[in-house]
Design a protein that fits this description.
Layout: H1 3-7, E1 10-15, E2 19-24, E3 28-34, E4 37-40, E5 46-49, H2 51-56, E6 64-67, E7 70-71, E8 74-75, H3 78-91, E9 105-110, H4 116-128, E10 133-138, H5 139-146, E11 157-162, E12 167-173, E13 176-183, H6 187-202, E14 204-205, H7 208-218, E15 229-236, E16 242-248, H8 249-255, H9 257-273, H10 276-285, E17 287-290, H11 299-307, E18 311-313, H12 320-330, H13 332-335
Parallel strand pairs: 1-9, 9-10, 11-17, 17-18
Antiparallel strand pairs: 1-2, 2-3, 4-5, 4-6, 7-8, 11-12, 12-13, 14-15, 15-16
Helix pairs in contact: 3-4, 5-12, 6-7, 9-11
Length: 345
C-alpha cells in the first residue's frame, strides 16, 4: 500500500436510481440518501440534495426544479450526478485531511446492462466529484457478495436484484456471471403503474411519490387473505377539486400485474440460458432476491409460482449492493478481479 493509500479512504457507492448508499471501508454503511437534487432554475444553484430535496418534491414553485440525475440506473444529468457524488463524499468525510492526498478511491455499483459509454460517464462523474480513482462493479455481482452467496465456488447462484430503475438477474459461479439479464423495468415502473391505475380507475391524479408511498404501504404482487387498505388523497381529474379515496392491496396487485410479468419473464429468460448443471444447483438452492423492489409483498411467492423454484429473501435486500461493493473496497487488493475493466480515455 502506497503512502497516498494510507491517508485516503476507500468508499463504495451503490449509485441507485431511487436511493444512493455509501459504504466507508472499516466503518460500514454510513449514508443512505434519495438520489434527488433540488436546483434553482435561473442560476443552476443546488438548493438541497437527498432527503431534504425529496421533502420538497411536488411542493416547489416554478423557480425550483426537482431533478433525479439517474434514470434506469444510468446518468441522465451528468453535472447534477457529479454534484451528488461530491456531496456524498464530503458528507462521509472522504475529503478531509491535509494537502489533498486523501482523495478517496471509489467502488461504484452499476447495472450489468449499461454500455461502455455509460460506464465511462459514471467514472468521469466520480473523478470530477473529487475521487482519486473510480472502479465499477456490476450490481448483480455486488448484490450476491452482499447476500453472502458462495460466488467463488463451482455452484450456481441465481440473484434477482430489483432496484428503482433496473431489474438485474444473473447466475454466478466461480467469481463470474455465467448468464445475465438486465431490464429497465423495476421500482419506478411500479410507481408509475399505480399512478396510472388511479387515473384510469378513479379519475384521481396523485404525485409519483404518493404512488411510491402506496406501493410501500400496501403494494402486493401475489394474492393474500389479508387485504390492506389505504386512504389516498389527490386531485379529481373531472372536478379539479381535492378528493380522498380508499384503495386496497388487491387493487395494487392488479395495477402492478404488467410490471411483475416483465420481471418474471426476465427471470425465465435467464434460466433458459443457464447451463444444466448450474440449473440443477439453482433448483436445489433456490433463487435469491435483493434490492428495495424485492420488498414488495408477495414477490417471492409470485416468482416461485412462475418458475417452480424456491425463492429466498436476503436478510438486508436494500443494502446488498452497497454491502457487496463495500466488501470489495475493504479487500480491493484481493478482490480486484471482480471489478470491470473499462477502457477510459
Amino acid at each position: 500500500m502506497g503512502l497516498i493509500d494510507r491517508f485516503s479512504k476507500d468508499i463504495a457507492i451503490d449509485l441507485g436510481t431511487a436511493n444512493t448508499l455509501v459504504y466507508v471501508a472499516g466503518k460500514g454503511i454510513m449514508l443512505r440518501e434519495p438520489s434527488i437534487v433540488a436546483i434553482r432554475k435561473e442560476t443552476g444553484e443546488i438548493i438541497a440534495i437527498g432527503v431534504d430535496a425529496k421533502k420538497m418534491a411536488g411542493r416547489v414553485p416554478d423557480a425550483i426544479q426537482i431533478v433525479r440525475p439517474l434514470k434506469d440506473g444510468v446518468i441522465a444529468n451528468f453535472e447534477v450526478t457529479q454534484k451528488l457524488i461530491e456531496y456524498l463524499i464530503n458528507k462521509v468525510g472522504g475529503r478531509k485531511g491535509f494537502f489533498g492526498f486523501n482523495r478517496p478511491r471509489l467502488i461504484i455499483g452499476i447495472p450489468s446492462g449499461i454500455t461502455e459509454v455509460e460506464m465511462r460517464a459514471v467514472i468521469e462523474a466520480a473523478l470530477q466529484a473529487g475521487a482519486r480513482q473510480a472502479r465499477l462493479i456490476q450490481e448483480p455481482m455486488a448484490a450476491a457478495i452482499g447476500a453472502d452467496l458462495p460466488i467463488s465456488e463451482p455452484i450456481g447462484n441465481m440473484i434477482v436484484d430489483v432496484g428503482g430503475g433496473t431489474c438485474e438477474v444473473a447466475v454466478i459461479s466461480l467469481n463470474g456471471m455465467v448468464c445475465k439479464n438486465s431490464i429497465r423495468i423495476a421500482g419506478d415502473e411500479m410507481n408509475e403503474a399505480i399512478l396510472q391505475y388511479l387515473k384510469r380507475q378513479y379519475n384521481l391524479l396523485v404525485g409519483i411519490y404518493t404512488a411510491e408511498e402506496i406501493k410501500i404501504e400496501i403494494g402486493s404482487a401475489f394474492p393474500s387473505d389479508e387485504i390492506m387498505i389505504a386512504e389516498i388523497k389527490g386531485r379529481d381529474l373531472i372536478t379539479g377539486l381535492p378528493r380522498t379515496i380508499t384503495v386496497t392491496s388487491e387493487e395494487t396487485r392488479i395495477a402492478l400485474n404488467d410490471v411483475m410479468i416483465s420481471i418474471l419473464d426476465a427471470v425465465k429468460a435467464t434460466l433458459e440460458e443457464t447451463p444444466p448443471d448450474l440449473a440443477a444447483d439453482i433448483i436445489d438452492r433456490g433463487i435469491f432476491l435483493a434490492g428495495g423492489g424485492s420488498l414488495l409483498r408477495g414477490m417471492d411467492k409470485y416468482i416461485s409460482e412462475g418458475t417452480g423454484i424456491l425463492v429466498n429473501n436476503s436478510d438486508n435486500p436494500v443494502l446488498c449492493v452497497a454491502l457487496g461493493a463495500g466488501k470489495i473496497a475493504e479487500n480491493i487488493e484481493k478482490l480486484w478481479p471482480l471489478l470491470l475493466r473499462v477502457k477510459y480515455y
